[in-house]
Write a structure and sequence with these properties.
The longest helix has 24 residues, at about 120-140. The chain has 3 helices and 6 strands. Strands 1, 2, 3, 4, 5 and 6 form a 6-stranded antiparallel β-sheet that branches. The protein is α+β, with helices and mostly antiparallel strands. The radius of gyration is 25 Å and the shape is elongated. The chain starts with a helix and ends with a helix. Helix content is about 35%, strand content about 25%.
């Protein structure tokens, strides 16, 4: 019985080793829409950081997918400042995986007062980030 058991174990090992050889493993698709070594989609993350690179960063959390900028004053309009929060909601590269929120303040008589942000501003930022993320993915395909 001991010989029979030993023969069965050796036979199963031989079959499993034979199944491993002769074929190349498929290469990983590095440009897949769900590439992530962080908690969120890496293309959206990099694109968000690239897009907001002109603003000072206050907080970044790659696992939670949150980027918060500090107040930014455009030198051309020194009486106005903006603060942006980008949230990446998913591991997939999709338009609904991205949320941008912005705050705007205007300096009136030395005090910063909240002012409305045009919806087109937030939409434009989302479009820029998504376009950059798609470009990053495309360039990963060609590399």
């Amino acid at each position: 019985m001991n010989r029979l058991l030993r023969a069965a174990i050796l036979g199963s090992l031989a079959l499993s080793i034979a199944a491993c050889g002769g074929k190349d493993r498929p290469k990983a698709d590095l440009a897949a829409s769900q590439v992530t070594t962080i908690g969120v989609n890496s293309y959206l993350w990099r694109a968000s950081l690239d897009t907001l690179s002109f603003m000072p960063l206050l907080q970044t959390d790659s696992n939670g997918g949150v980027i918060v900028t500090d107040w930014y004053v455009n030198p051309n309009t020194p009486t106005e400042r903006m603060k942006v929060t980008v949230t990446i909601l998913d591991k997939d590269l999709r338009a609904d995986a991205l949320r941008v929120a912005a705050l705007r303040e205007i300096n009136t008589s030395g005090a910063w007062v909240a002012a409305p942000v045009q919806a087109a501003t937030v939409q434009k930022l989302e479009d820029i980030i998504l376009t950059r993320a798609r470009d990053l993915r495309r360039s990963a395909l060609t590399d």
